[in-house]
Amino acid sequence: MKNILFVASEGVPFIKTGGLADVVGSLPKCVDKRYFDVRVMLPKYTCIPQEWKDKMEFKTSFYMDFNWKNEYVGILEAKVDGVIYYFIDNESMFGGFRPYSNNVYDDIVKFTFFSKAALSAMPLLGFRPDVIHCHDWQTGLVPVYLRERFQGNPFFHGIKSVMTIHNLKFQGKWDVKTIKEISGLDESYFTPDKLEAYKNANLLKGGLVYADAITTVSDTYAREIMTPFYGESLDGLLRAREHDLRGIVNGIDYKDYNPENDKYIDFRYNAKNFRKEKIKNKRNLQKELGLEQNDKIMMIGIVSRLTDQKGFDLIAYMMDELCQDAVQIVVLGTGDEQYENMFRHFDWKYSNKVSANIYYSEEMSHKIYAACDAFLMPSLFEPCGLSQLMSLRYGTLPIVRETGGLKDTVEPYNEYESTGTGFSFVNYNAHEMLATVRYAEKIYYDKKREWNKMIDRAMAADFSWEVSALKYQEMYDWLIG
Ligand code: ADP
Ligand code: GLC
Question: Relative to the CA of 386, which ligand 2 atom is closest?
Fold first, then answer.
């Protein structure tokens, strides 16, 4: 049996702000249990819902030197769906209403603590990982501490580490002096071949330098991040580590996201009966959100963090024009105030066509995936993207920009060969986006049979974890030898 420990800052069902949590919550369940024991370590945020805290059991605790203080570290354990989760507890570190704050410095302190505590806790778990699998900048120091600090301890001898990049934009950067103090790492780590990048200390860079293998969440993004445009200033390092870098496309949980038995949707459907049943969800949502009650009108959904990454400047630029068409636009999201207000404004201006739902709701997200005809995701960059996979699964055709995982998972419609599962455009350009949405409208209104055949193909596409979990297994085998 090979032991794998995920260390991450969020994971479904305990705590989620985005796709990282979906991956951390679903991949461990799908790795072959005959050969791998995959467990997950997360911070015990005070904002984790009580029903999940009730499932945790206290295991042990200790004190750890951190940032000139002696800090409490509690370890709790829970088992959900056959997966064991460990939680690192310290209320002053992981308090607040959300897992991340708006202040990078606070988050750097919090996740440096988490990374150090995660490693210090390992010898007490009764579970020695062969591979520690780290996710994003919050756990970037884990491979650093593993290689350098814990080298002398025989428990850690031979443990390998993987760093998975879910989003290269966020790196955990602060000045060298401060990070040196917080982390307790000495001068020698803060050179440009290690943690320093452009005069700052950079936690993700530490992870990328010290990890034994690097992965990211799609093939295309793996190639893109070796270029200056997508490389977020780390493209040089990623090129240097090209042979240790691979792209493994994400899957989604096919049990949680299944239109046939989804507890959140009013009318369940499958690949055989969607022609009759799916539309009932649209009818209900139109009623619930106060949109025009009209079976025929094309409904376009957006479920997203409202940030520049997702292409909202293109949408903002084209909203007025788009709203002249026969479409309804349903948005669910939170994020940058300018985009929240932009959608509120258009909801007010075109009240029977646009519905802005500026909040977070798992239930509403499922209703939108089920009810809409199309799903719009014109991202500037997209490491993988899960929303388009959820849309495909619900027969809601994605309209995307060809970047990162969007390019790898949505096959553009080809009207001559009758292939494809969605619509896509190449350049980050508002007019190209609008033209593509209008092309989709044309197929929706004028070639309904073609549209429905596309839904057949979309719902038949397989983005469960089956194939990708095997690729992670191969990588673990290769690392462990
Ligand atoms: P990212 O991780 O960059 O935010 P992904 O497409 O990988 O993008 O994953 C986003 C996940 O978060 C999906 O599961 C999506 O349904 C969910 N999500 C985003 N915004 C909301 C919201 N306001 N309410 C509910 N779920 C949301
Ligand atoms: C990040 C990316 C998204 C990806 C998710 C899970 O949040 O923005 O594209 O799907 O991580 O890997």
Answer: 10
